[in-house]
DNA sequence: CAAAAACGAGAGCAGTGCTCTTGCATCGGC
DNA sequence: GCCGATGCAAGAGCACTGCTCTCGTTTTTG
């Protein structure tokens, strides 16, 4: 089989892990644009050309780091998630976990939600990891809609086809209007996080934690989650 | 003094403009990370070291491009702005202008609203240009609040100090709750634009124009703007 | 007119991603 | 156990990059 095949295979996974670890350290310290293959190799005591045996290009190394970052963020969000709480509280908790992770890993956040690296397009392998937070938010909305449906303004005619298509794709058991609001809230959440992280709130918002909690609370209302018991 | 004296000063402005023009072209074509001083100089038929007489570093050239990008975006938004329309319609128009500009200038949008270039912090000179769209949105909200105040949920106690501080800073004539909603909507607008531009909506949102118009319409509602006549 | 400042050109330094070749260690089939 | 195929590290090298310094030349200024 593949696992026990000698010391060679074992060494390969160890070196691969060491490269990613060192690369992640440089990424956290300096940012994606300053991540240098040669510096990683130098720090690991190997020569730069040897590193290409493990990652055929710098972009491939970046892709691995991107997937790891998505997974780390998804894990944080899922870990903060208390399934016993009310949907509204769970929404707030997940949003705060996303913000907290972003503040703890600014460069990794920038890597996945900031400007894409030029000449680089994320391969499809990143999609599942990238979807984790979204799926979590969909799950919360789904639980909330088990109860009585809040009155939601009727769907405008021109939005209806797209809303129904999105609902069919993402959450067939939810009303199309709720799914549309959910996707918008999902994007808007990252607007709030990104503005804080990238300095756009400098000299504008001071008490960012409180501001954020209220903003995502209003986002939750838009999705149909209600505070209070239940 | 430095101004207007002789052919040297004139040449300096011309060369500076040519550098920025060529740099902007490369920026649009390849993205900020691939913007190369040497390539700009080569294209202009000068040697790379000569370019340092005009921009002391690559970051200084980037700063100039950032300011230009903010101004270009601000101009687009202000140009699309029809002062005769209703505040709600004006809000939608400005948001759509921001989105349109972003789709037309993706790399420049990424430069100002994407990940900050590592090791680079925007100097204060960018602030006025960066504030233009925000000021435009504030103006729309101000006009809307000339009329009867819509009923808005009371400010939560923990948010009140920050909300009042923001209102005092940004729009003393607006209720603190409206200013808070406005700042949040401002950030959320860029979440919507960024997600579309950076590919997060791939395989999720198809009819992005319609989706966007409705999402920013709901944003407007949150700020207290109402559709229909008025 | 002479001193000073601005300028273009070139060489050079340290760094980058990436490729190619050269030996050596390990592995699988006989 | 041997032997050819494969995996791997090392080094040299290419074409770049940002940036600095020096050296004449030109323009501006006092």
UniProtKB/TrEMBL annotation, chains A, B:
Coiled-coil zones: none
InterPro entries according to UniProt: Homeodomain-like_sf, HTH-type_TetR-like_transc_reg, HTH_TetR, MT1864/Rv1816-like_C, Tet_transcr_reg_TetR-rel_C_sf
Superkingdom per UniProt: Bacteria
Domain HTH tetR-type residues, every copy: 13-73
Signal peptide per UniProt: none
MF GO annotations: DNA-binding transcription factor activity; transcription cis-regulatory region binding
SUPFAM superfamilies for this protein: Homeodomain-like (SSF46689), Tetracyclin repressor-like, C-terminal domain (SSF48498)
Keywords: DNA-binding, Transcription, Transcription regulation
DNA-binding region per Swiss-Prot/TrEMBL record: 36-55
UniProt-listed Pfam families: TetR_C_33, TetR_N
PANTHER family attached to this UniProt entry: HTH-TYPE TRANSCRIPTIONAL REGULATOR RUTR (PTHR30055), HTH-TYPE TRANSCRIPTIONAL REGULATOR RV1816 (PTHR30055:SF243)
Protein name: TetR family transcriptional regulator
Organism of provenance: Streptomyces cahuitamycinicus
């Amino acid at each position: 089989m593949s696992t026990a095949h000698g010391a060679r295979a074992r060494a390969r996974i160890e070196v691969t892990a060491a490269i990613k670890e060192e690369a992640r350290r440089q990424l956290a310290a300096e940012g994606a644009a300053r991540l240098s293959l040669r510096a990683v190799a130098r720090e690991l005591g190997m020569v730069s050309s040897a590193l290409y045996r493990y990652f055929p290009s710098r972009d491939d190394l970046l892709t691995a780091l991107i997937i790891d970052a998505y997974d780390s963020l998804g894990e944080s969000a899922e870990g903060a998630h208390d399934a016993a709480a009310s949907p509204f509280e769970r929404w707030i908790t997940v949003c705060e976990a996303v913000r907290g992770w972003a503040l703890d890993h600014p460069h990794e956040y920038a890597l996945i939600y900031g400007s894409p690296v030029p000449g680089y397009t994320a391969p499809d392998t990143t999609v599942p990891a990238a979807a984790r937070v979204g799926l979590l938010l969909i799950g919360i909305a789904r639980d909330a809609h088990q109860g009585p449906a809040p009155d939601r303004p009727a769907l405008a005619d021109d939005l209806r086809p797209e809303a129904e298509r999105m609902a069919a794709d993402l959450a067939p058991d939810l009303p199309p209007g709720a799914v549309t609001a959910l996707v918008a809230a999902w994007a808007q959440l990252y607007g709030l996080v990104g503005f804080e992280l990238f300095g756009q709130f400098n000299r504008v918002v001071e008490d960012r934690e409180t501001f954020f909690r209220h903003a995502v609370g209003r986002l939750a209302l838009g999705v149909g989650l209600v505070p209070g018991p239940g």
